[in-house]
Amino acid sequence: MAEKMSEEVMDPRSFYIGRFIGAVAAWCEAARAEAKDMSLSSPFQPTDHDSLITYVDKVTKENGVKFYLEKSLMTTDLFADVDMTGKWVFMIYKKDQVMEEYLALKAEKERLEGEGKYHGQRRINIAMKMGRLLGYSDSYIRQRVEEQNPSVSKGAEQSIISGKNLGLDHVHIIVKDLEEAISFHKLLGLKLVRYTEHGGRSCMMQVPSSPIIFELQQANNIENPGLNHMAFSVVDLDVFCKELRDEGMSVDGPVTSKATGRRLATLRDPHGLLWQMVQK
Questions:
Q1: What is the dihedral of CA 153, 158, 160, 164, to 10 degrees?
Q2: Of 91, 94, 99, 242, which sits with the fewest C-beta atoms within 10 Å of its C-beta?
Q3: 170 and 73 within one domain
Q4: Helix, strand, or coil here: 203?
């Protein structure tokens, strides 16, 4: 009897299925608890589908989550070392929106590849979005991209900063009390240039021996004190905006500010911080 049990435990097929379903069950629990938006099973051969599907269906229903059979997983630089040729995966998730986001992202990648634009920052953006769906931190995603394909990360950095002649132009800060903020910045060595009505009651303060301006603006009833935006001066704003868009970034502008008469454009970084570019 003991010998028979030993043979059953050592059966490679049973061991494989048990380990596979055990991992899927763990991902189902994570999805149920909303610890992860989406998880992936181990890749498997299509010939194993019929042996696995009954168990996957059962364990997902028990946890109140869903699965999607992906026969052509979108590959990114997160896992460039994984060969998915001819392999399938089960995608475990709870909210339909998550699967909709994945399928839309996959379509976006296919479009970029078809247009010959899947490179640089756009390629990194695809990996970032996929990583976030899988619950990875931004720092871990960047680390993986750098480890898996260093040329992609390095190339994106070069394409963004090389030859653009960027220089810090000004920093815009919303403050609770303008006069109190002026006194504080004077202690730091900044000089009051003038009061303005830009965005409401505000002023311009200058860093000594530098053209950099700090714009301090009195907060209104709906504004929260803090950093509003940072601005860089560029040699050719139109070209700069085009190059950013070519890298897959969403840019508003250029427009001409009625308050200052300067041409400017804005965009937000992956964390929502507002950045501004102004014509030099």
A1: 170
A2: 242
A3: no
A4: strand
For the chain, the domain total comes to 2
79 and 214 share one domain = no
User: 14 and 138: one domain?
Assistant: yes
- To the question of pTM greater than 0.85 for the whole model, the response is no
3-state secondary structure of 178: helix
Structure-block tokens of residue 57: 């269906």
* Residues 154 and 19 grouped into a single domain: yes
| Mean pLDDT for all residues in the chain | 86
Q: What is the pLDDT of residues 185-240, one digit of tens each?
A: 999 999 999 998 877 789 999 988 888 899 999 988 777 889 999 998 888 888 88
Tokens representing 86 are 């001819």
Check: CB of residue 202 under 8 Å from CB of residue 216: yes
pLDDT value at 173 more than 90: yes
Kindly provide the b/e burial profile for residues 163-198, where b requires at least 16 CB atoms within 10 angstroms of the residue's own CB: ebeeeebbbbbbbeebeebbeebeeeebeeeeebee
Phi, psi (degrees; rounded to nearest 5) at 274: -85, 130
